[in-house]
Amino acid sequence: MLWNTVNQTVELGWDFYLPVILFVALIALAVPVWAAIGVAAITMLFMSGDLPLSLVGESLFAGIDAFALTAVPLFILTGDVLVRTGLSRKFLDVAEALTCFAKGGFGSATVLVCGMFAAISGSDAAGAAAVGRMTIDRLVESGYPRPYACALVAAGACTGILIPPSIAYIIIGLVLGISASTLFLAALIPGLAILLSILITNLIVNRIYNYEGGGMMTAGEWFANLGRSLKSGWYAFIVPGIIFYGIFSGRLTPTEAGATAVVVTIAMGFILRTLSLADFPAMLVSSAKVNGVILPIIAFSAPLAEALAIMGVPQGFVTSVTSLTDEPWLLILLMIGILIAAGCVMETTPNIVILAPILKPLADNIGMNEIQFCIMMITALGVGFITPPLGLNLFVVSGITGESILKIAARAVPFVLCMFVVVLLIAYVPAISTTLLPDIYK
């Protein structure tokens, strides 16, 4: 019914439907997403004749000709260096010392270290792989079933795109013309809320099934243990400290903060003698592979966005949806449903570049703050990282453990539910996203 209304409003023809069919078919055939988007965009422009194909090359270049995008490979590289220098294990030691007094302590430490890693790398898949290799076997030894241990890491790693600095917020900021620094500031409370919800959910599940006990210790023993961990690994927190202070104080742009973090992390690796020149080729290639997946998608999103805008799809979508209902709460719920469904079948970057320009006018129409919309969108898409059939984090932890994806997904259900609750809170309580922002953005 909704799509029929859209079709009548915009008068869509084969110049729209054929590219969409091609896109779906190419995705089903496992063609890289950037290629599928590119074929769909060029076909749409060719069939509509509204924009000369000679301008596609210029549009591709303009799509990635942004200083803010330089931060993406820098944060990816910082996360890779962090793992290779062993600094990520220092995070785990401190997180374990913080939570060792409580029942389910190591499970809580796993969630916390996911958040710490997210505050540096900005990537969920990298966090799932790095933290999973460090913690899953120890979680099993502590009494957790392996599928649940994998689900816990996969859920915790979702904070990679939710806690700033996040690659996803850089991309949506570029697509919608919003400062990445502003989005980072707005995402701080929602990102921590997601982390806290996963932490609490694990504690509840652990109490119900009694997976992991907790060592009894006095306050003095806990404080002494924490002091020893901080003494041996305090320097690992220099990197996230630089990133957070630099960005949130306004002294550094996200790109400058990423560059500084890379230099400092590499210098620490040489000082600690955990990094050598021989590590650089593999490290750079690994980071380049991740970056090589993201940037072509962003580049080809530009001609696609132009094609959709020329055909009036975003405006038609808004007109059609609002003709069915004008209740803001219902329209917000509709957007959340679309985003979670999209997150289940496609990665975050293509979802952002395709859906953000279409849903943003609808959010504007109901008076939703544009910053709040961005935070809601990224958080809703983040649920898809632990939801089949795509569930990128599920595939990552399954790949490093050999555990069945379906078993992991079944154990991840409580985390999906708790994240959904936070998404609803973000969508209906603007203050969660705007409290830290200057008045001009509220």
Describe the structure in brief.
One of its GO terms (molecular function) is transmembrane transporter activity. The chain is mostly helical. The protein has 23 helices and no strands.
Q: Could you give the order of the helices and strands?
A: HHHHHHHHHHHHHHHHHHHHHHH
Question: Portion of residues in helices?
Answer: over 70%
Q: Report on the biggest sheet.
A: none
Number of E-state strands: 0
Q: Give the overall form.
A: globular
Q: Number of helical runs?
A: 23
Question: If you had to describe this structure to a student in words, what would you say it looks like?
Answer:
It is a single chain. The protein has 442 residues and is mainly alpha-helical. The protein has helices at residues 2-10, 14-28, 33-48, 56-64, 71-84, 87-99, 105-121, 124-141, 146-157, 167-176, 180-209, 219-233, 238-248, 254-272, 280-311, 313-324, 328-345, 348-365, 370-383, 392-401, 405-411, 413-428, 431-434. It starts with a helix and ends in an 8-residue tail after the last helix. The relative contact order is 0.15.
List the SSEs and their pairings.
Layout: H1 2-10, H2 14-28, H3 33-48, H4 56-64, H5 71-84, H6 87-99, H7 105-121, H8 124-141, H9 146-157, H10 167-176, H11 180-209, H12 219-233, H13 238-248, H14 254-272, H15 280-311, H16 313-324, H17 328-345, H18 348-365, H19 370-383, H20 392-401, H21 405-411, H22 413-428, H23 431-434
Helix pairs in contact: 1-16, 2-3, 3-15, 4-15, 5-14, 5-15, 6-7, 6-12, 7-8, 7-9, 7-11, 8-9, 8-20, 9-20, 9-21, 10-18, 11-19, 11-22, 13-14, 15-18, 16-18, 17-18, 17-19, 17-22, 18-19, 19-22
